[in-house]
Amino acid sequence: MSKQAVDFMELSAYRKALDTSFVHRYSHGEDEWSWDIGMARAARIFLAALGDRPDQRILDVGVGRGRDASELIQAGHRVTGLDIVENSSWPLLRKRWGERLELLNSALQDWQPVDGRQFDAVLDNGCFHHQHPDEWDAYLAHMRSHVRQGGLIALNVFGVDSSNPVPGWREMDNQRQGYFFTEQGIRDTLESYGLTWQELVVIERQHGDAMYLLALVRN
Ligand SMILES: C[S@@+](CC[C@H](N)C(=O)[O-])C[C@H]1O[C@@H](n2cnc3c(N)ncnc32)[C@H](O)[C@@H]1O
């Protein structure tokens, strides 16, 4: 896996490009992932993997419009959602879910909980694969630091398929990049950051080519 083997733009410029790209997509109603049945399925698999214990504290990284957060809360959990884009759906969600939902406008890499709390589990449904390669270390280290030992971490990432089996970066809109993994590639990547492998679920992507690979790991 060669996450560096790409002529990537400088980190601060890429951060701005990522922000611009997501703001544009949400404000133009072009965030088709918000309605993607594959992404919704990934969240349900994560929910099932949480087990029967109620009232778990979940960190939803790249919470977007809050589809998954709402489902997790309905199942009896509490959610903190982070996103680089303050979504127009957030005011209504805050009103609806009250103290069970906290929504914060921050990149995962920049965020520290004020009270130093740790979460029982983390869901990253479609966020990690867009991060600048120079930030993978910081991103995953932050993620791990927010989860209790043994806690569940689910990352849903782009996966290659037979129409284009080559792993690597693919350019999306507004200079946003997406990394497409092989099944072995996502496993090797997460294990190389010290996470304990649990399971991989391959999920059909409703919009666009390729697949989703939902990696379930433990901290
Ligand atoms: C493909 S969308 C998925 C949104 C949501 N998880 C879903 O399933 O509908 C990725 C989200 O991650 C957010 N994002 C990207 N980089 C981020 C970062 N470093 N920290 C937090 N959120 C980020 C984007 O603004 C966007 O809302």
Automatic annotation (TrEMBL):
<dbReference type="Pfam" id="PF13649">
    <property type="entry name" value="Methyltransf_25"/>
</dbReference>
<keyword id="KW-0489">Methyltransferase</keyword>
<dbReference type="GO" id="GO:0032259">
    <property type="term" value="P:methylation"/>
</dbReference>
<dbReference type="GO" id="GO:0008168">
    <property type="term" value="F:methyltransferase activity"/>
</dbReference>
<protein>
    <submittedName>
        <fullName>Class I SAM-dependent methyltransferase</fullName>
    </submittedName>
</protein>
<keyword id="KW-0808">Transferase</keyword>
<keyword id="KW-0949">S-adenosyl-L-methionine</keyword>
<dbReference type="InterPro" id="IPR041698">
    <property type="entry name" value="Methyltransf_25"/>
</dbReference>
<dbReference type="InterPro" id="IPR029063">
    <property type="entry name" value="SAM-dependent_MTases_sf"/>
</dbReference>
<feature type="domain" description="Methyltransferase">
    <location>
        <begin position="58"/>
        <end position="151"/>
    </location>
</feature>
